[in-house]
Design brief:
This protein has 425 residues and is α+β, with helices and mostly antiparallel strands. The protein folds into two domains: 4-91, Nucleic acid-binding proteins (OB fold (Dihydrolipoamide Acetyltransferase, E2P)); 108-412, BirA Bifunctional Protein, domain 2, CATH 3.30.930.10. The protein is built from eleven helices and 19 strands. The chain has helices at 48-55, 104-109, 111-114, 118-140, 179-187, 227-257, 273-284, 298-312, 360-369, 377-380, 397-404; strands at residues 4-7, 10-22, 26-33, 36-43, 62-71, 80-91, 144-145, 151-152, 164-167, 170-174, 192-200, 213-222, 270-272, 316-320, 333-334, 337-338, 340-345, 348-355, 390-396. The strands form four sheets. An eight-stranded mixed sheet has the order 7-11-12-19-18-17-14-13, sandwiched between helices. It has a five-stranded mixed beta barrel with strand order 2-3-4-6-5. A three-stranded antiparallel sheet has the order 8-10-9, with no helix packed on it. Strand 5 and strand 6 form a beta hairpin. It starts with a strand and ends in a 21-residue tail after the last helix.
Length: 425
């Protein structure tokens, strides 16, 4: 709990009333802020005016208290209590419309109340540290952070999954990702860039891992030799981020969520898509029709958690060698094989990464094959004037948080969730 000394011998605290025990001759009040809790002790006979204020106070009201901080070995909250000399109720709280038994959707209706708990606030303190650690890793490796526009002129990557908006006298779309602008930065000679920003997907998905707006951690860099360079950098960045986060929050995450943060060893294991399906069949009797083996099915993805642990003793697994049919046109291909990967963690894909196709004629051919043509005309311009071999990846920050803390869904990993059925608060 933050205690400010306002003058010698007198301190001031501000926070929420978390608990109030009103006894015959004493009042014990627990005050909470983001940093912790402290006990305020009122002797009614000595402070009748203050006792009267607290006797009418409601839980979760906010207060400003000045008085003396004294040591008391019987006080469980740090062995310190506040003896108040002045108390001001700065805002009065009504009875809560939600409680611990409320469903997640009920709690989302009053998210600003739901977020007051230590558990929920820890989610975002943890997330902030993880993102900062990954950002720190990139800055140490000469990356530049950029900020790309979220209004785009064409529904470039997948027209069915973009949000159309009115942009003055014409249509615009909310960006599904900064992919095209990341590559424009490569054409501009930035060489190594990243961005942490919102992305928008008009998918009517109601799974625990999908949202219509989410935070993406995007990375792109030049002068690579293959997509192996991209995988290596991502693995190093994730390991660095988890190490830093465990150092700061490991004990608290274990206490509150019952989760041990595992810092992964390097390099991360990798398998070809065809070999993944072979192993899943041999080890677990899992099969799918041949026509579905062009990608990982949801169940195959889930089983990759078990496969990674059984085969490699690892939590992460890179899956490579996808056919190009269901992949973006800007991924490089060699002999019909995509030069990219998915990264699976705890049975869910957290990244798609690749070496990009930087050769203009090849890129144009790929775009024409997928019927994009005019939609990506502006993007193709980036490749006419020289651009180095490059690649990159994107990680969903919210999905990463959900998986690490074993949260039930993205609804609890986002500050304010957006899905097909939710636009408020």
């Amino acid at each position: 709990m933050k205690i400010c000394e306002v003058k010698p011998g007198q301190v001031e605290i501000q926070g929420w009333i978390e608990n109030l025990r009103d006894k015959k001759s004493m009042q014990f009040v627990v005050i909470r802020d983001l940093s912790g809790k402290i006990q305020v002790t009122v002797v009614k006979e000595e402070n009748p005016e203050i006792a009267e204020i607290f006797s009418h106070a409601t839980l979760e009201s906010t207060v400003k208290i000045s008085g003396k901080a004294v040591a008391n070995e019987y006080v469980k909250l740090g062995g310190i209590e506040i003896l108040p000399e002045k108390v001001e109720i700065t805002s009065r709280a009504e009875a809560f419309p939600i409680g611990p038994e409320s469903s997640i959707d009920q709690r989302l209706d009053f998210r600003w109340i739901d977020l007051r708990t230590e558990r929920n606030q820890l989610v975002f303190r943890f997330q902030s540290e993880l993102v900062n650690a990954m950002r720190e890793y990139l800055l140490q490796h000469d990356f530049t952070e950029i900020h790309t526009p979220k209004f785009i002129a064409t529904a470039s990557e997948s027209g069915a999954e973009v949000f159309e908006v009115k942009y003055f006298d014409r249509k615009a779309y909310l960006a599904q990702s900064p992919q095209f602008y990341k590559q424009m930065a490569m054409a501009a000679g930035f060489e190594r860039i990243f961005e942490v920003a919102p992305c928008f997907r008009a998918e009517k998905s109601h799974t625990k891992k999908h949202a219509t707006e989410f935070t993406s951690f995007d990375v792109e860099f030049s002068y690579i030799n293959s997509f192996q360079d991209v995988m290596n950098l991502e693995a190093e960045m994730i390991a660095y981020g988890l190490k830093k986060t465990k150092e700061k929050f490991g004990d608290k995450v274990k206490e509150v969520f019952g989760v041990d943060i595992v810092v992964p060893t390097l390099p991360f294991p990798q398998m070809r898509l065809v070999d993944v399906y072979d192993e899943l069949e041999k080890r677990y009797g899992f099969t799918v029709p041949e026509e579905e083996k062009t990608d990982l099915t949801t169940e195959a993805e889930r089983l990759c958690e078990r496969l990674a642990k059984d085969k490699f003793g690892h939590e992460f697994l890179f899956v490579t060698d996808y056919p190009p049919q269901k992949r973006a046109f800007y991924h490089m291909r060699k002999n019909g094989i995509l030069q990219g990967y998915d990264l699976i963690w705890k049975g869910i894909e957290i990244t798609s990464g690749a070496q990009r196709e930087h050769r203009f004629e090849e890129l144009k051919k790929n775009a024409d094959e997928k019927g994009l043509g005019k939609d990506v005309k502006f993007y193709l311009e980036f490749f006419k004037y020289g651009i180095p071999p490059h690649g990159g990846f994107a990680i969903g920050v919210d999905r990463l948080t959900m998986l690490l803390l074993n949260l039930p869904s993205l609804k609890e990993a986002e500050f304010l969730f957006r899905g097909p059925d939710r636009l408020d608060p």
